[in-house]
Design a protein that fits this description.
Structural class: mainly alpha
Radius of gyration: 17 Å
Number of helices: 7
Largest sheet: none
Strand content: under 5%
Number of strands: 0
Oligomer: single chain
Distance between the termini: 18 Å
Shape: flat
Order of helices and strands: HHHHHHH
């Protein structure tokens, strides 16, 4: 049981870059919705992900519900994967949300901040991988 608990804890640590990128993408999506959206005009929801867009266009709390479910799903999937699988999964989720967050950053802050955001996410991913390798 102790080995299994250690593996789940390690997997959750390896998911930190995925969670960070997802939370950033979700947060910036929420922040940059037009005021009219929050006032009830759900048809102007600004979201590229069709699942997120569907949730947002059906209820003002849709982004919060779908995002909460997604974050829980990331954790549930991640804790049951092997070390190598969770590494790939975390990288995949991080890259997807880095792209999503970057689209908002590009529109509101410009290219240099996109590069900075990508550099931060890449560094976080690699540093966590290094820490995990040292603990093996």
């Amino acid at each position: 049981m102790k080995v299994e608990l250690h593996q789940k804890k390690r997997n959750l640590i390896m998911l930190i870059p995925a969670f960070w990128a997802a939370l950033f993408d979700i947060s910036i999506t929420i922040i940059y919705q037009p005021k009219e959206y929050w006032n009830g005009n759900l048809n102007i929801a600004n979201e590229a992900n069709p699942i997120g867009a569907f949730a947002m266009q059906n209820h003002v709390s849709g982004i919060f519900i779908i995002s909460s479910l997604w974050l829980i799903l990331i954790g549930l999937i991640g804790i049951f994967l092997t070390r190598k699988q969770v590494q790939y999964f975390s990288l995949f989720v991080m890259l997807c949300h880095t792209w999503g967050g970057s689209s908002w950053i590009m529109n509101h802050f410009g290219f240099p901040f996109v590069i900075l955001y990508i550099a931060i996410n890449t560094t976080l991913f690699l540093k966590i991988q290094e820490k995990i390798e040292k603990c093996q």
